[in-house]
Amino acid sequence: xxxxxxxxxxxxxxxxxxxxxxxxxxxxxxxxxxxxxxxxxxxxxxxxxxxxxxxxxxxxxxxxxxxxxxxxxxxxxxxxxxxxxxxxxx
Length: 90
Fold this sequence. Notes:
By secondary structure, this protein is mainly β.
């Protein structure tokens, strides 16, 4: 039981997004879009965040849908790594 709570407390965040830039070496920029409901007007809003992702093999292309996971700081801005490529860009 103690192991489960420690795993839940330290669970790493996982996000899905679309690669918006791959011009850097071993780094890609992934745009993650979240749909949130406005607290007063109840209208759904789309909020996007750019995350810097570690891409060891440089195989990501712009437009790919990827699943990324939180990791230790790899550089000044990079805190995410690629878990899998869900869909390749056409």
